[in-house]
Amino acid sequence: MATGFFKKTIKLFFVVANILVAICFCLGCYANIFFSESFWLVGFFTLASFYLLLVLFIFFVGWLFARSRWAFLFIGILLITYKPILNIIPLQLPTSFTLQKPAAALRIMSWNVESFQILNYKTQPQLRQQMIELIKRYDPDVACFQEMTTADSDKTAMYQLKDFVKDLGFPYYFYAYNILDDYYPGTHTHYGRIIFSKKPIINKQMIEPDPLDYNRTFQYIDIVNNTDTFRVFNCHLQTMRFTQDNYKYIDSISSPDIKRSEGIISKLKASFPKRKIQADRIKEEMKKSPYPVILCGDFNDVPNSYAYTTIGDGLQNAFEKKGYGIGRTFSDILPTLRIDNIFLDNNFEVAQYTRVKKMLSDHYPIIADVIYKSR
């Protein structure tokens, strides 16, 4: 009698746990529907989506061994979340990336360059040059960089914009920054976003939504490619603003600390609604475009997040078309952080895509060759 009651209690526990994990996973997959400033917890479920899926699979295997009908719960979850799952892990085999561009292709690069390692310039001056050599090796037609730190007017500053233009060989560029993000106040060394182009730029714009805030600004340019004109957006959404101490604590979480954990949760909580506001504003501007859109950026958020699905609505993601695996683009903390993206108008064909896994920044550069198919 007692044994039967114990078995029923254990089974009930696993059933309830399985259902709760399934609910959290579904909420995380459809954050664009459920996320709000008051229901910010959904943002955590999105960040944890890959791990929640693993837990669901473990439950599934367990139910199979137990010959329980609860195994069908996993099948049902797969059916209602198959598209978000494919956003996380496309079902594609690895393909090689050739440096030689396909005929008629436009090569797009997006990279959070982490200020081209300006903080390490005196101790590791070779890093900046290695980054420049990587860019030149892949020879993008359009390169969108986030966390660009350089001086566009002060001739005495360490990093000169004119030197980057000369070293990289791009004839056209647009450097956009918020004066609140000045790297060295008073030196005209700024911290912002830049788009380099080998195609003529016929229009450039920086959008500064009120109130001016960290990472609130974004930019776009219109480029002419043969007979076509494209609008290229470059954005950098709200960061978590983690410190090195935060990163170290996350890496060694085996010894939990309530105060330090609360600090990390607080920063995550604060960043979710800010990215929502930024994503809405960027999408609003994208809808005004009279030209096919290309958008590059560091989203500081993962697939299926509110920002990802809002900005990507009606567009295709280069990684989802030609990438494979998880596609991690941020080298710190979790191995599942694909937070950098190239989104494209659906009239583009993605010929090839790659992530260059070199530790020159805390982000890996991503590159896509795309071919426009006129309507």
Characterise this structure.
This protein has 375 residues and is α+β, with helices and mostly antiparallel strands. It has two domains: 2-88, no CATH class; 106-372, Endonuclease/exonuclease/phosphatase (Deoxyribonuclease I, Chain A, 4-Layer Sandwich). The chain is built from eleven helices and twelve strands. The strands form two sheets. Strands 3-4-2-1-12-11 form a six-stranded mixed sheet. Helix 1 crosses helix 3, helix 1 runs parallel beside helix 5 and helix 9 runs parallel beside helix 10.
What would a concise description of this structure say?
With 375 residues, this protein is α+β, with helices and mostly antiparallel strands. It is built from 11 helices and 12 strands.
Any chance you could write out the topology, listing elements then pairs?
Elements: H1 2-29, H2 31-34, H3 41-47, H4 49-65, H5 71-88, E1 106-112, H6 126-138, E2 142-151, H7 161-168, E3 172-177, E4 189-197, E5 201-207, E6 218-225, E7 228-236, H8 244-251, H9 258-287, E8 293-298, H10 306-312, E9 316-317, H11 318-322, E10 340-344, E11 348-355, E12 366-372
Parallel strand pairs: 1-2, 7-8
Antiparallel strand pairs: 1-12, 2-4, 3-4, 5-6, 6-7, 8-10, 9-10, 11-12
Helix pairs in contact: 1-3, 1-4, 1-5, 4-5, 9-10
